[in-house]
TrEMBL record:
Protein name: Lrp/AsnC family transcriptional regulator
Species name: Motiliproteus coralliicola
GO process annotations (BP): regulation of DNA-templated transcription; response to amino acid
Transmembrane segments: none
Gene3D superfamilies reported for this sequence: 3.30.70.920, Winged helix-like DNA-binding domain superfamily/Winged helix DNA-binding domain
Any single Gene Ontology cellular-component annotation: cytosol
Xref: InterPro entries: ArsR-like_HTH, AsnC-type_HTH_dom, Dimeric_a/b-barrel, Tscrpt_reg_AsnC-like, Tscrpt_reg_AsnC/Lrp_C, WH-like_DNA-bd_sf, WH_DNA-bd_sf
A Pfam family of this chain: AsnC_trans_reg
Higher taxonomy: Bacteria, Pseudomonadati, Pseudomonadota, Gammaproteobacteria, Oceanospirillales
Length: 159
């Protein structure tokens, strides 16, 4: 895995700008300019440069999982029978096409992947785990169901 280094130098204004944008992707340029003590045109230029350089990947809404009826969140450790490219590719393709897996990481240690699974209830969660079990190359699953969400954030520590 190639480690990316910032291609531009950030000053405190850039970092403050990024903090505000990651907290509120719908912030207006005029409001952002006010918060970072710039006039609107220089603020917009900095914002646009950060987008163009790839520091801002996308803008999206964070939906309320519980209000939408997704009351169960689980974390499943996946072990593959082998690390042949065919197995890993099949598993990664399944994950990429499955909307009830919002998060997946290939990890080091005693298992190969850690996935987050969302479901409306335990019956649906069981069915989803059963689908994971049937993916070719999966040899073992260990699941834990979350009983309380303490923190759920995608904000990066820009200090």
């Amino acid at each position: 895995m190639k480690k990316e280094k910032p291609s531009m130098q950030f000053d405190s204004t850039d970092l403050t700008l990024l903090k505000h944008i990651q907290s509120d992707g719908r912030i207006s340029n005029s409001k952002l300019a006010e918060k970072v003590n710039l006039s609107e045109t220089p603020c917009w230029r900095r914002w646009k440069k950060l987008e163009d350089e790839g520091y801002i990947d996308q803008y999206r809404a964070v939906l309320n999982r519980k209000k939408l009826g997704f009351n169960v969140v689980g974390f499943t450790q996946i072990t593959l029978s082998s690390h042949e490219e065919e197995n890993t590719d099949l598993f990664e393709q399944f994950v990429a096409q499955t909307d009830w897996i919002p998060l997946c990481h290939c990890v080091t240690g005693t298992f190969d992947f850690l996935v987050q699974v969302v479901a409306r209830d335990l019956d649906e969660y069981y069915e989803r785990i059963h689908q994971l079990r049937r993916v070719q190359g999966v040899s073992a699953l260990h699941s834990s169901v979350s009983v309380k969400e303490i923190k759920n954030s995608s904000l990066l520590p820009l200090d």
